Amino acid sequence: MCGNYDKQDKLPEFDLYIGVNIWDKVKFDNESHIVIKEIIHFSLMDHINVCLLNIGSGTPFISTLELRHFHNSSYRIPPIKSLVLYRHFDVGSTTGQIIQYKDDTYVPQSIPFNASSAVDSTKMTLNVPQSIPFNASSAVDSVNHSEYKLPSMVMDTAVRPMNNDSLDFEVDTSDPTLEFYIYLHFAELEIIQENEQREFNINLNGNSWKESVVPLYLSSTTINSSTPVRGPKLKFSIYKTEISTLPPILNAMEVYLNRTTTRIFVTYDLVAAKQLPRTHQGGRPLKSDNRQFTYSEVVSITNNFQKIVGKGGFGTVYHGCLSDDMQVAVKMLSPSSTDGSMQFLTEAQLLMRVHHRNLTSFVRYCNEGTNFGIIYEYMAYGNLAEHLSDKTRDALSWKERLQIAVDAAQGQLAELLLIKYYTSNSLTERSDVYSFGIVLLELITGKRAIIKSYNKDNTNIVDWVSPLLARGDTRNIIDPRMPGNFDTNSVWKAIETAIACVPLISIQRPSMSHVVIELKECLEIEKAYEQDCGPMMKSFNDTFDVNPLGLEMDMVPQAR
Asked: What is the pTM assigned to this prediction?
């Protein structure tokens, strides 16, 4: 609660981050408005960084920071996800009071678990029409607590339909593009007679979500979505089955916002690999031994290295599956690679400490004898090279490619925060910029870093682009599969940025921060162009198809 703390008579507004990722935006309705933000976060490190970011609308402040531990059996989320609380609903409550937890070590001392509570800044409300609230005569979970550690005061109340058949209600999400995870909590509050039965099904957005739910007497049961759901509204229908004699019930509901976005990862071996010193090769242990797999475990999760999903400069990448069904990519160091062990070690050290939504998340590692491997999250949607070369997929638009470039460059910045420390300055930022420049050229051209030819030697992508650029022939530089029209200046600026990254002399290359700035400008130019042109945009290829003389038409940038 701000309470005019800075004497400016103005409500502050600031951003909240966890690590380098946006958590939420903090706003106040008035000076007495209490704002509480909650997130379920999978920590990849032994510490968590929370940042209050000043956005020029008042000095950020914080009153209380609370940390609590969840068992893996409750809110299960893989390392790439964070669940931001959207709203708690104490569905059957008639008091609207804030629930207090004095003896529960798994939850804070106070938290707004109520649909009408004023302390929550979200605007979502829950209305269950034609329903009747009722409560239990004894406390729920007084003997056996569920893994979700739900407060008894919440689960002791519920609603049931007036018509005895179904509970139908909807939640307005305000944005159909947002993704949500839903948790519905049930507990039987009445003693069921021998000739009675309460059983119900659950539909979400017209689709069957869960069937034959039978709540237990004075004991919590939780039904949750294993995959995120979205839509302008989340429409629920909880209805009794044919064999049920009693109506359905609902005790509580939680809605979490999925902070994971569909990402295309840029993966490549650094050109300067990481020239790392070999004086400590194999002699530096990794810190977090609790994340170490034995070699036999790696063999098991990869099914004896059955499926190859990629190859790098120092080894092969295999598909794997952990015991909790999480898919992973297992990158194993080739026994013949004498220069790669330090690169592997450094990469594992970095990924254990640097987490960014545009960097592949580290899961575990293996370091046993001559067997060294790194286990990452699995890129279910494929990597960048696959999206560029696979003719069966829709080609990425120019705007999408620019967004990928900006995201990848920002992920590089996150990695560079610690890279000097772990490599003793042997790998400089400028060598990383060269590698990124190659990736940027791949994005622009749709070609691989090494362009293979059947009738002559293979060609480096820089050598292929340079003569075309010298002639101003950018038409033949750009990926011909790229759909839609795009701004000429945006394309030229991106090519110039890529070429600036790849001089052989490292001091001639820009910093990664400068690259990020340039690419953001390219993206803003393209966004403005799309907004101005709208539905009148024509296909880039169509522009050249209508040339009756077949003359070469080069793209010429406007003065800037």
From this structure: 0.51
